[in-house]
Amino acid sequence: MRPGAATVGAVRAAALLLGAAGLAATLWHGLAEPGNALAFGTLIALGELARRGARPGTGHPEALRGSEPAPVAAAAALAYALLGADAGTPTTHGVLQTTAVVCAGGLAGIVPHVARGRVRGGDRGPDPDHLARRVLTVGFAALCFQPLYNAGALTGPLGTGAPYVLFLLLVLVLTGLCDAVLAALLLRARTSYPYGPLLRDELRALLGIGSAVCATGVVMALGVAAAGLWALPVLAVPLLLTQVSYRRYAAVRTVNRQTIASLARAREIAGCTPPGHARRVAALATAVGRELGLGGSELTVLEYAALMHDIGQLSLVDPVPGGATAPLPAEDQRRIALLGGEVVRMTGVPAAVAQVVERQADPYREQPLPARIVRTVNAYDDLAGEGAGAALEALETLRLGTARDHHPEVVAGLARVLARDGLPGVTSVPTG
Q1: Quick one: which H or E segment has residue 205?
Q2: pLDDT tens across 43-96, in order?
Q3: How confident is residue 13, by pLDDT bands cut at 50, 70 and 90?
Q4: Which of 54, 66, 255, 363 could make an SS bond with 127 (beta carbons 3.0 to 4.6 A apart)?
């Protein structure tokens, strides 16, 4: 059993039990307010159907999640969990029917993706784990709201004004935090990356599109309570536009990354560096960055800098033999780094990327963490050959250089990443 499989299995089992309990209870007692259940279930299914898979990446949050957000489905599910009335008439659907509708709607939206074979592969469909998260978090929201509402403990003391709305927002904040914790836990189980940076990325996403989803969920619940189900399609339009905007933003980022990768390959085509060197350094540097606590935009800067770290060699009259800069004297390394920074600044990428490229040859005690990572991972790829023996020898060389050239924590993080990826004989690298 791979590491983290027990955690993923436990989350899936909990969601399966909750969904099965909801479906069984709904079948046994009958469907309360069938029109509401059908409307919200259809909206959830359409939101999931509109979700598009993501291509695997090198460790970015969106690549790790495996697919783009489904804000319409998430908002509709939350709205159904917090639905107290329909056009002024109190509802009675309760917690179990809420989970049953969310589960049925989610499955209906995922089935077409599965039928097209998009759940696994290059252009992946939605990850089934996101449905498990949805069922659990919406079940949590319904548990916080439905029993109190059905018992009259909310509308009596709070009424239907501002205090009632504030209570709904409080429930959504708690639900968002629950979802962030659960999402980071699943990513940790699948990737073995440190939990802290993963949770930080999820909380940042919660402050972004997550806040729009939560706000729309509250507005949907209040809109249906006042005007009936006609409010649903009107309130879903802004989130549909948000999803389209996110898709275009993701496409722009993909094009930017592909452009930078093409620039990195220019060195390989010119014979300055070995084939695949930039790609290997970028992938390994991003993994080490995750291991050492980087996340979000920091990982983007690190990946871009790793891809373009040797681009200064294009300005050299005499190419470096074999393209390996690690064995060069410090002055030559610094000159190539400065030339690379000048080239990077002309590409239009963030200035932080050029700074990392320029400082990769500085003494490591003066470098920011991304520059330390690029320096060490580049040296490892230059020194390591085929086979575990050469890799271990390269790691030992880096360890011996921790007094002057490489930060001990970066070398140790690199060793942990390599050990986790199954490099034979690598378990850890002492830093003392």
Answers
A1: helix 195-205
A2: 999 888 877 654 444 444 444 554 556 788 889 999 999 998 888 888 889 899
A3: very high
A4: 66
pLDDT in tens, 152-167: 887 777 666 788 888 8
CA dist 219 to 89, 144, 158, 275, 327, Å? 17, 18, 18, 54, 62
Amino acid type, 99: T
Spatial contact of 80 and 74, defined as CB atoms under 8 Å apart: no
Q: Please give the share of the chain, as a percent, with pLDDT higher than 70.
A: 82
Place of tokens 């329909």: 86
Give the C-alpha distances (Å, rounded to integers) separating 69 from 52, 75, 83, 233, 332: 8, 11, 23, 19, 46
Residue 216: Cβ within 10 Å count: 23
How many Å separate Cα 332 from the centre of its chain?
Answer: 38
DSSP 326: T
CA distance 209 to 67: 14
CB 340 within 8 A of CB 326: no
Do the Cβ atoms of 113 and 53 come closer than 8 Å? Answer: yes
Token pair for residue 351?
Answer: 């200035």
Which of these, 283, 332, 319, lies nearest to 304 by C-alpha position? 283
Q: Read off the pTM.
A: 0.77
pLDDT of residue 431: 42
User: Taking the CB of residue 13, how many other CB atoms lie within 10 A of it?
Assistant: 11
- Residue 312 CB: number of other CB atoms within 10 A? 26
DSSP H helical ranges for 125-161: 128-150, 155-158
